[in-house]
Amino acid sequence: MAGRDYMGIPREEIPWFPTIDADLCSNCGSCLDFCTNGVFVQGDTSVQVVNPYNCVVGCDACARDCPTEAISFPDKRELIQQLRQLREVYSNR
Ligand code: SF4
Ligand code: SF4
Predict the structure, then answer these.
(1) From CA 43, how far away is CA 90, in angstroms rounded?
(2) What's the pLDDT tens digit per position in 29-74?
(3) Could you give phi then psi for residue 10, rounded to 5 degrees?
(4) CB-based contact 24:68 (threshold 8 Å)
(5) Using a 6 Å cutoff on CB, does residue 47 contact ligand 1?
(6) Is the beta carbon of 34 within 6 A of some atom in ligand 2?
(7) How are beta strands 71-72 and 19-20 bridged, if at all?
(8) pTM to 2 decimals?
(9) How far is the centre of ligand 1, averaged over its atoms, from the C-alpha of 89 (Å)?
(10) How many domains is the chain built from?
(11) Atom 8 of ligand 1 has which residue's CA nearest to it?
(12) Which atom of ligand 1 is nearest to the CA of 21?
């Protein structure tokens, strides 16, 4: 879903989305059922992230639901700093 903003910042500028460790993923499909935003698709041996910017900024709920801890996210403190900086950039445009 290109072209969306988050607090006036183009969503694609915000590096917040899940990463799947294919070695840990059991392909159980739980994250696919859990997230309704079309972020994931099921692959042959593991889930894949196909629409990273559909992920809700700051959400990490699927990672907590994953039985094998295969889903990771960036540090939330870094996210907050990045959002502050991006808001300054985009508020001056
Ligand atoms: S919930 Fe975890 S183990 Fe299950 S498919 Fe998703 S990433 Fe893989
Ligand atoms: S963090 Fe939330 S919005 Fe992002 S993929 Fe997981 S459940 Fe979906």
Answers:
(1) 37
(2) 999 999 999 999 999 999 999 999 999 999 999 999 999 999 999 9
(3) -55, 130
(4) yes
(5) yes
(6) yes
(7) antiparallel
(8) 0.94
(9) 36
(10) 1
(11) 25
(12) 7
